[in-house]
Design brief:
This protein has 172 residues and is α+β, with helices and mostly antiparallel strands. 25% of the residues lie in helices and 33% in strands. The chain is built from two helices and twelve strands, in the order H-E-E-E-E-E-E-E-E-E-E-H-E-E. The strands form four sheets. Strands 1-2-5-10-11-12 form a six-stranded antiparallel β-sheet. The protein has a two-stranded antiparallel sheet with strand order 3-4. Strand 11 and strand 12 form a beta hairpin. The longest helix is centred in the C-terminal third of the chain and has 25 residues. The N and C termini lie far apart (43 Å). 35% of the residues are buried. The model has no long low-confidence stretch (mean pLDDT 86).
Length: 172
């Protein structure tokens, strides 16, 4: 009682995978599919471009962006502490819990994953949020096709770690 499992962290990416499969079947080779601010699938690149530029909203100010990344023939998902907060006895927690401790994750404000499929990026962004920079780096070292970025939970000086990105690819 009182516990709810939200499969949004997995299903939007899967739905985008299916949608991309359908529109590719109609000959579409350039599109950016969006299932809300947290999950997108890029088919090809925009005409004349080398990838779709996606801005990532700041977890500290909804009117600002903290970075932007380029996505081509891949999916991008983000998980953030600012989404769906839970308030218990006057204390607000983020909605992502660490299954190892049963407690809300602290230390991460946003985690992003860019992976070959939407289902992968959706699952990995949540996993990277829980695992933090070291865990995301270990996973990405073993899976070179996956990129990640982690924003530490420190509103005074947000620090972004980029994993498996080319040197100057992220902007922001």
């Amino acid at each position: 009682p009182g516990l709810r499992l939200d499969l949004d962290g997995l299903l939007k990416g899967y739905a985008l995978d299916r949608a991309a499969e359908i529109i590719r079947g109609y000959g579409v080779n350039s599109a950016l599919l969006n299932a809300g601010a947290s999950t997108m699938t890029a088919i090809g690149a925009p005409p004349g471009g080398s990838g779709w530029t996606v801005k990532v909203r700041s977890p500290y100010n909804a009117n600002e962006y903290i970075t932007e990344v380029s996505v081509e023939n891949a999916s991008l998902s983000t998980s953030g502490s600012d989404r769906s907060p839970i308030t218990i006895e006057g204390v607000t927690f983020n909605h992502i819990f660490d299954p190892r401790t049963g407690a809300p994750v602290t230390g991460t404000a946003v985690a992003g994953a860019i992976a070959p499929t939407g289902a992968q990026s959706d699952a990995l962004s949540t996993a990277f949020f829980v695992l933090g920079t070291d865990g995301a780096r270990a996973y990405c070292e073993a899976h070179r096709e996956v990129r990640a970025f982690i924003v530490a939970a420190d509103a005074d000086t947000p620090k972004i770690e980029y994993i498996n990105f080319q040197t100057h690819e992220p902007k922001g």
